[in-house]
Amino acid sequence: MKIICVTILFWPFFMLLLSEKSQTSKTEVKVNFTEKNYSLIPEDISNNITILDLSYNQITLNIADTRVLQMYFLLTELYLNENKILILHDNSFSNLSSLEILNICRNPISVIQQDAFIGLNKLKQLYICQNKIIHLNPDMFVPLNNLKLLNLQGNFISYFDVPQLFHLEIITLYGNPWNCTCRLFNLQNWLNTSNVILEKENITMCNYPDSLKCYNIKTVPFAPECHSTLISSVTEDFYVNFRSISNSTFDSSLNNVTRNSEHEPLGKSWAFLVGVVVTVLMTSLLIFLAIKCPIWYNFLLSYNHHRLEEHEAETYEDSFTGNTSSSSQIPDINSEDTTVIFEQLHSFVVDDDGFIEDKYIDTHELCEEK
């Protein structure tokens, strides 16, 4: 029982020691290939390495090197300083999701493509010092969600927009030819309002104009028009972001319509579309009325059945009188034949409604019969 109690008490300490040993063993897997005059990253390295130092070589970090780096997905530190890298291509470190430190200082890097740092979600320290970079797009740092240190010392950067780095703690910017005009005002405002520490602030000096060379970029006085420029730029950015979120689909469709309008007239297509829609609606309405309201076509089928008007009845009487007078000249026709002819002449009366209008019925005889 005592043994069990002692085991339970010391079990957390035992597990802590194991975890520390495992972490120590992971950080101790280090490979050092400095000053080997390598032009390519070697492929025969163990896949479980965590620290790879390739400093002072001839590596250019081309497509073949990028493919080899994807094999070492357990890397936490990578040192490529003092090599021959000219361009950081897109997805150069895409498979290094455990990388925490990346050092590519003292290379002739002049271009960093937009998606060069995609996949480095755990990166904490990025060193791009002493290269030949002239301009940096701050959006390229967006994938670096956990970056705490950014070193841009010793490049040719004259202005730099505010980077989208929410966990950044230290930034190094000295050794660049800073242009302290209104274009740099946003960066100064960010450095003074955020919690980011500007390393070696006292030597991060303005290079242009000459009248401001005695100021560092964090304390340089700006003209009043720079403040109005800041307000207008913030308002414009807010408006652009709002439009891009709410009306992106509409804008793209509008652009397509505008491009198409350069090749064909817009009025004919709209007229044709309206004609098709109206035709379909009218056809559907007629079909609906024909199915739901059969009284319409019943009326159309029986439109030729109507009562005789008074003048039409008199016309038929005159014709009947003429016929009887002419028939009296024929000696062979008797009174029975005359009655038959009379009945045939008056057989056109329609009795669909059950009522017969006959002007030859004596109303006095009907009253006597009743």
CATH A-level architecture of one domain = Alpha-Beta Horseshoe
Strand content bin: 5-15%
| CATH-assigned homologous superfamily of one domain | Ribonuclease Inhibitor
Largest sheet: 8 strands, parallel
How many angstroms does the end-to-end distance come to? Answer: 129 Å
**How are helices and strands ordered from N to C?**
HEEHEEEEEEEEHEEHHHHHHH
GO biological process, one term: positive regulation of non-canonical NF-kappaB signal transduction
GO cellular component, one term: plasma membrane
GO molecular function: signaling receptor activity
Membrane topology: Single-pass type I membrane protein
Give a verbal description of the structure.
This protein has 370 residues and is α/β, with parallel strands linked by helices. The protein is 41% helix and 9% strand. It contains 10 helices and 12 strands. It has helices at 2-27, 63-69, 185-193, 224-246, 248-261, 266-292, 295-301, 310-328, 335-345, 363-369; strands at residues 30-32, 51-53, 77-79, 87-88, 101-103, 111-112, 125-127, 149-151, 170-172, 178-179, 197-199, 206-208. Strands 1-2-3-5-7-8-9-11 form an 8-stranded parallel β-sheet, with no helix packed on it. The longest helix is centred in the last third of the chain and has 27 residues, at 266-292. The protein starts with a helix and ends with a helix. 16% of the residues are buried. Mean pLDDT is 75; it is low at 5-10, 16-26, 231-250, 256-267 and 326-331.
